From TrEMBL:
Protein name in UniProt: Endonuclease/exonuclease/phosphatase family protein
The organism of origin for this protein: Sphingosinicella xenopeptidilytica
Entries under InterPro entries matching the protein: Endo/exonu/phosph_ase_sf (IPR036691), Endo/exonuclease/phosphatase (IPR005135), GPI-anchor_lipid_remodeler (IPR051916)
Residue intervals of the Endonuclease/exonuclease/phosphatase domain: 6-222
Highest taxon of the lineage: Bacteria
Pfam name, any one: Exo_endo_phos
GO MF annotations, alphabetized: endonuclease activity
Residues making up the signal peptide according to the UniProt record: none
Keywords: Endonuclease, Hydrolase, Nuclease
Amino acid sequence: MTLRVASYNMRKAIGLDRLRKPDRVLAVLNELDADIIALQEADRRLGERASAIPRDMIEAESPYRAVPIENRPNSIGWHGNAILVRKDHEIIHGEPLFLPMLEPRGAVLADLRVRGEPVRVVGMHLDLSGLYRARQAKMLVDHLGERTTQLPSILMGDLNDWMVNSKALKEFQRHHQCAACGPSFPTRRPLGTLDRIFVSDHFKVEESGVHTSLTAKRASDHLPVWANVARSA
């Protein structure tokens, strides 16, 4: 089994022109042509925290659907984190993950069946504080190790981490390898490798990178990152 996965901080669909354009972000998602996409800042922060891209727009104008995470009718995520999967993939389970935090942050987990094989996906948006990032990373890795059912796993998201060898990265790499995607922030001149993809030893990263289409360069202050991964023998 080979998968194409991606992670994208979509900044509530507000582009560099400061206009909220859900159709522009949806165009970027369609360009990615991934099996699974982890989104950050997918929901509006205030009010009913509705999805920045209406759910019916996602389902009508893309090959994706959102993994059910919360009971809010117009939201697709938890603290802005959401997971999209192609419509022909089976969603087994979805849930929010509660993180120690200084600011509103969180993570989401989905158990999926893709082309007949199970995979566990975590989408995350970590804290600006290095201390809390390390705690959050440790909690996520420990949580995966403690679950009753162990599955091949992929963790993706915006780590808010500018360091090359930070404590948070070391925590994730205890049991996962990091795809070498490259700098994705800020969009105008990418310098920071803030957006990351980690895979368990069940997978081999065949190819990875940053999506740099003209639309992506306008749609958010982050560029999407992606990886093609295959099940290891």
